[in-house]
Amino acid sequence: MIEVPARRRRPERPDPKDRPSLVVWALRLWLLSGALLIALGVLAVVADIVNLGLEFGVLAVDCLVIVLGVVYFLLAAKTYRGAVEWRSSLSALTCVVVAMLLPLTIGFQSPGLAVVLASAVIGLFGSLLAYRPPADRWFKCQVGDCAADEPAEKAAK
To answer: Residue 89 CA to chain centroid, in angstroms?
Structure first.
């Protein structure tokens, strides 16, 4: 007989009312970075079509920048709701994007790639904020657990 595994419950997420300001700022930086990447990608696609025509190699890089911006938006929305697994995915993505753009920018000495790199670094700062101790504690707690810990910390300081 075929056994059907029981459906797993969604993990408890932290309470949005207890969200620290670091998480809010991380979301803002991720969204700003995503919006800048999308805008720069669209601008580059339009400029390349007008100047070069439909050259696949250049347009592929520009479209990849647009896709990265959209992915930043989607992952940031999931992370903001308290999904810790998406926080690590978004942080790894921002780190990889910056690490890949840095040698490309230096190698091609492209001012356009330098602006894209600066936009990606904004997202990397958001990832750093999401791993600061208050934000990390909020991501790791269950519903109702975090509110009891914060007054004890303030009294200790």
So the answer is: 8
132 φ, ψ (degrees, to nearest 5): -65, 155
The torsion angle over the Cα atoms of residues 104, 107, 112 and 116, rounded to 10 degrees, is 30
Give residue-wise pLDDT tens across range 74-132.
999 999 988 888 999 999 999 999 999 999 999 989 898 999 999 999 999 999 999 99
- CA pair distance 134, 50, nearest whole angstrom: 48
Q: Is 157 helix (H, G, I), strand (E, B) or coil?
A: coil
Please count the helices (runs of H) and the strands (runs of E) in the chain.
6, 0
Which of 129, 150, 138 lies closest to 15 in space, CA to CA? 138
Q: What share of the chain is helix, strand, coil (3-state, %, to 5)?
A: 80, 0, 20
Report how far residue 73's alpha carbon sits from residue 80's, in angstroms, rounded to the nearest whole number: 11
What is the distance between the alpha carbons of residues 141 and 13, in angstroms, rounded to a whole number?
7
